[in-house]
TrEMBL record:
Cellular localisation: Cytoplasm
GO biological process, one term: rRNA 5'-end processing
InterPro entries: RNaseH-like_sf, YqgF, YqgF/RNaseH-like_dom, YqgF/RNaseH-like_dom_sf
Enzyme Commission (EC) number: 3.1.-.-
Record family assignment: Belongs to the YqgF HJR family.
Keywords: Cytoplasm, Hydrolase, Nuclease, Ribosome biogenesis
Role according to the record: Could be a nuclease involved in processing of the 5'-end of pre-16S rRNA.
Protein name, as recorded: Putative pre-16S rRNA nuclease
PANTHER family associated with the record: POLYNUCLEOTIDYL TRANSFERASE, RIBONUCLEASE H-LIKE SUPERFAMILY PROTEIN (PTHR33317:SF4)
Amino acid sequence: MRYLGIDYGTKRVGVSVSDEGGTMAFPYGIIENSKGLVGEIKEVCIREHIEHIIIGESLNYQNERNIVMEKIDEFIAELREVVAVPIVFEREFLSTQQARFFQTDSKHVDDSAAAIILQSYLDRKNTKPFLETLAKSAI
């Protein structure tokens, strides 16, 4: 199963994809946030056979929705009209700053941030069955 990760920004949108097994996230590209954004995301979904979209949930320091989250909601509403795959939020906190720490090429910070968001989701998703199995074997 392939996943698409999105780090939504008001100017640029970072995009990442997973491997076929849904275990590793890789930076894919950066798309300008313009009127053609939704169409470009749809094309990536078709080209890469995406089955789930994971988008960073933008919250402030009090864990409340911020201004960017309103734009993300509008983006998701438009996206749901053109893609028929589940769209899931993944909490993200300072993913762009994390990407800047690891990414020496500033041109690739946004797609690296998207990979951090997607990898966080994949790690949590893939660890849960292991922990459930571990818990059952301890009984």
